[in-house]
## 1
Amino acid sequence: NAGVTQTPKFRVLKTGQSMTLLCAQDMNHEYMYWYRQDPGMGLRLIHYSVGEGTTAKGEVPDGYNVSRLKKQNFLLGLESAAPSQTSVYFCASSKRFEQYFGPGTRLTVT
Amino acid sequence: GIQVEQSPPDLILQEGANSTLRCNFSDSVNNLQWFHQNPWGQLINLFYIPSGTKQNGRLSATTVATERYSLLYISSSQTTDSGVYFCAVSTSGTYKYIFGTGTRLKVLA
């Protein structure tokens, strides 16, 4: 099992560009999450999903959109990137409450 | 919303020493996890421990939910234990985990 994988690992964007981060899990987990981690800080929840076709807002949802069209995939979109969105993005999944994390995507917006 | 505080913020140990990391939370929680973020940034699941005590090798954790704290014990520390330790909590009926700001541990050889 690959667990939780994230694509891409690194990305540099210019202000105003758009991109989609892909999270995939092969553990048949119902729940999936997107977090961001800024330097010296803990993780903050952006959006989460409790099942295929459902999404909900977390702590810091502004500027992001998500979709969960398939159970195994959770996509995070940035429609118009801003420098404040420079961060490391982590995806996680869980069967119920015990979360498992992917390796992260380092995004820089210039 | 719920506040999560971890202490100490930074800790430096000699290899072989023991340590206790603390996580305090401001409201009742139904779920609590401890994670280790290694120097390469990977988040490793240590314990899911909403209450009680668990042990895994040199690591153990205790959560006293009624008193709103959890402790992570590291015994006979090794250099590979270096990194940042996070606790994360969520309250009843929600999947929204709130993370503490972490304890940064450095173990010296």
Note: Chain A touches chain B through 24 residues (CB under 8 Å).
## 2
Amino acid sequence: AQTVTQSQPEMSVQEAETVTLSCTYDTSESDYYLFWYKQPPSRQMILVIRQEAYKQQNATENRFSVNFQKAAKSFSLKISDSQLGDAAMYFCAYRSTGNQFYFGTGTSLTVIP
Amino acid sequence: DTGVSQDPRHKITKRGQNVTFRCDPISEHNRLYWYRQTLGQGPEFLTYFQNEAQLEKSRLLSDRFSAERPKGSFSTLEIQRTEQGDSAMYLCASSPRAYEQYFGPGTRLTVT
């Protein structure tokens, strides 16, 4: 079974600075999708960024970018120019070919003004 | 397009009672997922529908759990003979494609 590991339960960053959240996963599949989701306090989960495993180019969405290392099974999220609204729980997720999504335990991000 | 909605938002029930939750996906989304999320954990996959067909079901899912999507639109998740360990947030998500999901606000279940 696929597993997703987020080894940083909590992270903090100064406003306007850059922070990187880590994620590793375990799989025997070659074709899959990876995601970062954001869950603000008491609000619903929203997609931050998506990466297709067959694409070598790292995905970027405005201030959010990923570092996808397929051989190392690593998928980190970089948030540049951090804003107060970025404070949330961030979940790394893996989608298998069987249409199941596996989530990590999350990283709680605090943005310090 | 009003997003994924879930009803009720909160449910308190006594152990042993049955509960049913409803999820209304975004219109035209043919894929629908149910998850369970406990405090401090990420969402745990429960089941997946494509249209009205239930294509995937977690092996961790007890026989007390059942889900339906009778007309390929809204879905229901029923838990029979609830236990205290069933207390969690139950999330629904829908999508038009395999590689994205739009989540609802969740139903928080408390079993006393």
Note: The interface with chain A takes residues 4, 31, 33, 35, 40-45, 48, 50, 55-56, 58, 91, 98-106 of chain B (CB under 8 Å).
